[in-house]
From TrEMBL:
Gene3D superfamilies: 2,3-Dihydroxybiphenyl 1,2-Dioxygenase, domain 1. This is VOC family protein. CDD domains: VOC. It comes from Streptomyces levis. Residues 6-119 form the Glyoxalase-like domain.
C-alpha cells in the first residue's frame, strides 16, 4: 500500500486546484483524466500529492469548530522558510487569514474553499505541539 494523495472536496475542484498550484511552487497537475470534477496535483519529483473533488453539496468547514456547524475534518501543515513572507504570498494568491491564531509561531489560513491550513518553520514545533 502507498498513500498517493489527500482529497479535498470543494464546490469547484479546478478552482481549488489552481489555488494550490499557485501556493505550492513547482507543483503540477499529475492526473487530469478523471473527468471535470477531479484534479490531482503533485510536488516536483513525485510523491504524495493533493487531489480535489467537486462536491455539489459542499459546505465549508468552520475554524475554530463550533456546535451545529460543519466541523473541520482535516487540515494541511505546510513547512516554510519564512512564515511572514509565505503568509503574505498565500494571501496574495487567494488565501484568507483565519480570525483565530492559537500559536505565535504558526499562521492559520483558509483556502478559497474554507479549508484551514497552517504555515510554520522547521525551527518551531509543528502546529499543535507545544514549544
Amino acid at each position: 500500500m502507498r498513500l498517493t494523495a489527500a482529497v479535498l472536496d470543494a464546490s469547484n475542484a479546478r478552482e481549488l486546484a489552481d489555488f494550490y498550484l499557485r501556493l505550492l511552487p513547482g507543483w503540477g497537475v499529475w492526473r487530469d483524466e478523471d473527468g471535470p470534477d477531479w484534479v490531482h496535483i503533485r510536488p516536483p519529483g513525485g510523491g504524495t500529492g493533493l487531489s480535489f473533488q467537486t462536491e455539489p453539496a459542499y459546505v465549508p468547514p468552520v475554524w475554530p469548530s463550533g456546535p451545529d456547524r460543519q466541523q473541520m475534518m482535516v487540515h494541511l501543515d505546510i513547512e516554510v522558510d519564512d512564515v511572514e513572507r509565505e503568509t503574505a504570498r498565500a494571501l496574495a494568491v487567494g488565501a484568507r487569514l483565519a480570525d483565530v491564531q492559537p500559536q505565535d509561531h504558526v499562521r492559520v489560513l483558509l483556502d478559497p474553499a474554507g479549508h484551514p491550513f497552517c504555515l510554520y518553520t522547521d525551527e518551531s514545533p509543528p502546529p499543535g505541539e507545544s514549544q
